[in-house]
Amino acid sequence: MKKEEIIEMNRNGWNELIKANKPFANTILPEYGPFLKRNEEEIGLFENLENSKVLDLGCGEGESLEYLYERGAAEVWGLDISSEQIDRAKRRFPQFENHFFTSPMEDEVSVPANYFDYVISIFSIGYTSDLYETFKNAHKYLKDDGSIIISWTHPFYYCLDVVEDKVIVGKSYFSEESEVITKGPNKVNLAQKNLMISSVVNEARKAGFYLDVMLEEETVLKDDVNGYKSSFWRKEKTVNCPSTIIYKFKKINEKS
Fold first, then answer.
1. N- to C-terminal Cα separation, the chain
2. What letter would DSSP give residue 181?
């Protein structure tokens, strides 16, 4: 898929999902991903939030930013491909109304450079059409020694499937092409991609980051998910492989 096609599909898809009021409570802070045994309260990737400035790439309605603001962040900023989500984020933070932008994360936006202590992307990085450009933008936005914290589906978990109660490798780990998936009761189309660990680490390094922390967290999943069967979040898979991977990169200080 071309970049323009990915962006258009995701813009329209997320706007439709948000109008349907689909909740995403398990992919907003303090949660780093669906059904994880630990969250930010136990993991503690944010070293010092007091008076910090935070930018969220794929901010949704601002729920993760609200969690950080309540814990001491002085300023919150966000961008999202969905205008519906940005409108709701502005209503959540009327005091920071001018801090929210409708934009894909791979496009540079008019936020202050060398300004932020943290850039975050909680379960949204796989919707980018250009991983390197996303990291390059984050590098420009962050202060020296600032951090970007990312979570996404673990790339090996993404490849697993369950056939006749047996876990199989149903997809190639090496395939990073954007794939059309469906979400919500109306089966809305979205484009997302699997991201190999090496791709994330190498693209971040190329953009000027070093890896500080990488976590492959244990998942706690019942046989059903909130009363319905899930074809993706399956207990048979989660007992054999982490479902979410979390990265914390720090901006390389060129002066040091």
1. 41
2. E
Q: Distance between CA atoms of 227 and 243, rounded to whole angstroms?
A: 20
Return the pLDDT at 34. Answer: 87
Q: Which residues 6+ apart lie within 8 Å of 114 measured at CB?
A: 140, 141, 142, 143, 144
Distances (CA, A) of 25 to 12, 33, 142, 255: 21, 9, 27, 40
For 86-100, what is each residue's pLDDT tens digit?
Answer: 999 999 999 999 999
Domains of the chain in start order, with CATH, are 3-243 (3.40.50.150)
Distance CA 132, CA 23 (A): 29
CA distance 188 to 181: 8
Model confidence, pTM = 0.92
Which pLDDT tens digit goes with each residue over 100-129?
999 999 999 999 999 999 999 999 999 999
